Amino acid sequence: MSTIWDGKDNQGRSVSSGMYISHFIANSIETDKRFNKTMKMILLK
User: Fold this and answer.
1) 26, 1 in Cβ contact below 8 A?
2) How far apart are CA 42 and CA 19, in angstroms?
3) Burial (Cβ within 10 Å: 0-12, 13-18, ≥19) of residue 20
4) Could you tell me if residue 18 is left (phi over 0), alpha (psi between -120 and 50 degrees) or otherwise beta?
5) Checking CA distances to 34, which of 1, 19, 22, 25 falls within 20 to 30 Å?
6) pTM
């Protein structure tokens, strides 16, 4: 799994360098199971 983050917050403003947490949740329609993934990201400018 991969994604691209442009380093901006929900209002479109650039965020500071630092550590951020990403949380991904997906539900399976076929098996009714849930997938959770939490990752640390480091943004360097």
Assistant:
1) no
2) 4
3) middle
4) left
5) 19
6) 0.64
